Amino acid sequence: MIGAQRKAVRITSTHKLNLERFGCTFGGGIFSINWKGKRSSQATTAGIFACLGRVDTNSGPIVLLAFEISAIRPLPSYCYFPFDLNNPVHRTYLSRLTKQGELKFRFLTNRGIYTRNHRLTPYLCLRATEVLAEAVRLLGTIEKGKYNFDGALSLMERHVRIPEFLNRLLLEDTVGEISQRISEAVKTVPTEDREFATAIVNQVAGAFTPYYRNNRKTILEYLHNAPRGFAYINDLHRIFVDNPAGLTEFLRDGLAASFTRKELEAISELGVFILSFSSLFRQDELTPQSESLAKVPELPFGLADLVHSMKISGISKDSGFRFLKLIGLEVGGRPGRPTKDYSREYELKKSLSWTNVTRQRLQDNLELRDEFDGRYFDSLNFEEQENLKNRIREGVRSYAERTGRPYPIGSEDEPD
């Protein structure tokens, strides 16, 4: 639905700041788009693509609606609006959006306001539902009063580009055009060839569909993240193409600053990997005879062994995240409760059972005891005791992993 109102619009100072910062603002269930400086008539015909996205940072999750608005396809305009998950108005709107998928716009032009409606596809509504649910779950892992929306927004704005959320190659009308060409071309194909092609597609679909249904979330997460990883490798090539030594130093120092000596020893093939990776940037080794656009290059020698050694060597996740953050692949970490110190419990476990270690932890830790209304271990019911014992055991195991200490501790002790 499109409508035009030939009158000026008055906006508050907050909405004005939002327009300058995000390219749009939100109020009354309507997104106002800054379209000033563009042709007013294009506001009624511009293509709109929108999707809900999530960015996880140390300060908490950010949920945002990203918009690509194309007056002409090669040069779209991008804007977005970030939602504060502690704002009940924002939460209510997001919940309604995931169910109805309807978006309302006001294009603010030099000649007045143009109103537009847009509807998300059923698939994008489903994805929006998943994005919001995961963001709410992550918000629930943060201690009450610790969610910092402004801090999370600042982190996001330093590390994220809005086109990443909207990147796509095929547009709906493009697929329509391709489908029409295919329909014309297939008319001349013999029936038996079409039937054979149908059998091939059905065979592949039958084999892949059960896997997709069971692993849909993982597959989509990979497909979402893979382009970012490939773009990062391409950026390294662009920046270090004339400076392979600089790339080696960049990766070397990042690894040295992230991993312990024990972890570095576990990936001793690193030297081979860096040399192989750096060779990709040595122009003098490329000759017309060795280059082939039709051949996919093999992985650098040693890379498979390096990945294998990292998987089996007990490298901590903290070190991995630290390395990714140092080299710019991590936005700011994932939100969560602060890491607890289990060093005392680790030492106690050398001489005590898990039951007694848990009993001692609950007795000495007032904050933990508050979770059980001030009760001590022996006053808990069996289920509470077992859950707490498992929680302490996992805390100690995580502590041992982070610090590179042996686990299980000492000798193999009782299952308790």
Short description:
The protein has 4 domains: 2-168, no CATH class; 192-240; 244-326, no CATH class; 343-403, no CATH class. Mean pLDDT is 80; it is low at 282-313, 332-337 and 411-415. It has helices spanning 13-22, 88-100, 122-140, 149-159, 163-166, 172-186, 191-240, 244-258, 261-266, 270-279, 303-312, 317-326, 343-348, 354-364, 366-370, 382-403; strands at residues 2-5, 24-27, 30-34, 47-57, 60-70, 77-83, 102-109, 112-119.
What do these coordinates show?
This protein is an alpha+beta fold and 416 residues long. It folds into four domains: 2-168, no CATH class; 192-240; 244-326, no CATH class; 343-403, no CATH class. The chain is built from 16 helices and eight strands. The protein has a five-stranded mixed beta sheet. A three-stranded antiparallel beta sheet has the order 4-5-6. The relative contact order is 0.08. Residues 282-313, 332-337 and 411-415 have low confidence and may be disordered.
Write a concise keyword list for the protein shown above.
single chain, 416 residues, alpha+beta, 4 domains, five-stranded mixed sheet, 16 helices, 8 strands, disordered C terminus
